[in-house]
Amino acid sequence: MDFATADLIDDFADELQSCETQFRPYGGHAAFAGPIATVRCFRDNGLVKQVLNTPGEGRVLVVDGGGSLASALMGDMIAASAVKNGWAGVVINGAVRDVAELRTLELGVKALGSNPRKSAKDGAGEVDQPVSFGGVEFRENDWLYSDEDGIVVAGRKLV
Predict the structure, then answer these.
(1) C-beta atoms surrounding 129 within 10 Å
(2) Is the pLDDT of residue 70 over 80?
């Protein structure tokens, strides 16, 4: 898929939401796109692991971790399962860990930062519910496009 988020904004401004949150890139793919799946959790990555262990079919998992940097919601093992299961990317409003390994994976990953501390594994949270941060509402099956300029979301596939 060939796109630039700046060009998408120029061509489809009325259809796009642009995320104001300044994420850092961690994955092996600088640009990624796909239909959205969502998880809302706080300092507990049980649902993140569960969802990324299902067939991704080119989707992007958007995780609202409440912006917490107290513990990582994804590390190299969960990210490797995302690759194995065909996920295009993961956007985490929270922290990741194992960042050196994440850079080697064929996966788009954006997060607020990193923390080596593991999170809880209780599975607390919600799946497939709209999540909001950075001035954007991320809804299941909307399309997310991410590159070095940022993240935009559309209600349909644009390219």
Answers:
(1) 13
(2) yes
